[in-house]
Each structure stands twice: as C-alpha cells, then as structure tokens.
Amino acid sequence: MGDVSPTIRRLSIPEFTINTPVLVDIYIEAMEYDKAIRDTRVEVWRRNSQNPGFTAVAALMDDQVVGIAYGFNGSPNHWWQHQLRRGLRQQGGPTEEEIQLIQNYFEVAEVHVQPGFQGHGIGRKMMHELLKDNASGHAILSTPEVDGEANPAFSLYRSLGFTDFLRHFKFDGDQRDFAVLITPLPLGER
C-alpha cells in the first residue's frame, strides 16, 4: 500500500450521529462481529455521543472513512465504570489508588481501523488527536486478550504508554477475556 497519509479530523456530535451507521460498519468489520448487532450498536453509539466530554475522530482516505475513535469522560453512573469496579473487587480491590484513578478518566470507548488500512499508523494518529488537550488525569480502554499480546492493538497501546489495570476480565454479556489498560494524560510515547 506504500505511504498511507490519512486526514484525521474531529467530528462534531451531529456529524458523528449522522454517520454512525458507516462508523459502526467499520467497527463490525474490524472486530469481525456478526452484522446482526449493527442496529443495536448504532443506538448505543448515538447514546454515547450525549455523554459529557464526548470526543470523536475519524480517519479519511480520499474522502472515505477508514477509521473511527471516540470516547468520553468516565462517570460513576456509566455501565463501564460499574464493570471496572466489579473487576477490581474480583481482583481483591479496589485500592485507594485505583479508586482515585477511576475518579478522573477519559474512557476510550472505541478505536477501529478498516482491516485493509491497519498497520499504517492510522490508529496512532487517531489516538493522539482523540486525547490531545484532554483535561482528564488518565485514559482507560479495553481490548480483547490475545496470547502474548501478539496483535497490532496491544502493540499500539503499549507504545502509547498504556499499562495493565485489569487483565483477563469478562464484561457482562461477553464471554471473551479483556485487558483493561490505563495511561496518564497527556499521552506519551515509549
């Protein structure tokens, strides 16, 4: 493919909402999910756009969206934070430090690049734009566990300074193991 130089730009909430079906299609393809989840995920993503601190970025190549990343401020009222607290309890916590960490974080909800465009730095560029100027103390995300962390997602997150927060965690409704990773903000590079 040679040099891949996408345009990375922030999406307004109306742009995100209008384009959510296309963005969810990228997610389904990148994660190899069943297309039957499309309508449900479109609704969830649109609801997420109403969360405080919502930020979305897209990667465009020749006016085609090839990547999406979005997130929002963590909140004790969100399902995800309830899941994190459950995971910390299962692992003997939460400690005072862990409680502090989940008081002020930005949840990186989704980061996806179309398979044909992966491996060219698009995810890295989206992460930098997504987390640029973010006032939260930390960014937290989850990614499916893989043996030896041998996939591009883990390589990207580790290179951006993400460390373990929870490992081999099962979110309610998903039987796969996930790693929950955290990094201080502003975003660094290893």
TrEMBL record:
Molecular-function GO terms, alphabetical: acyltransferase activity, transferring groups other than amino-acyl groups
InterPro entries assigned: Acyl_CoA_acyltransferase (IPR016181), GNAT_dom (IPR000182)
Annotated ranges, domain N-acetyltransferase: 6-186
Pfam families named among the record's database cross-references: Acetyltransf_7 (PF13508)
Positions in coiled-coil regions: none
Name assigned to this protein: N-acetyltransferase domain-containing protein
Source organism of this protein record: Corynebacterium deserti GIMN1.010
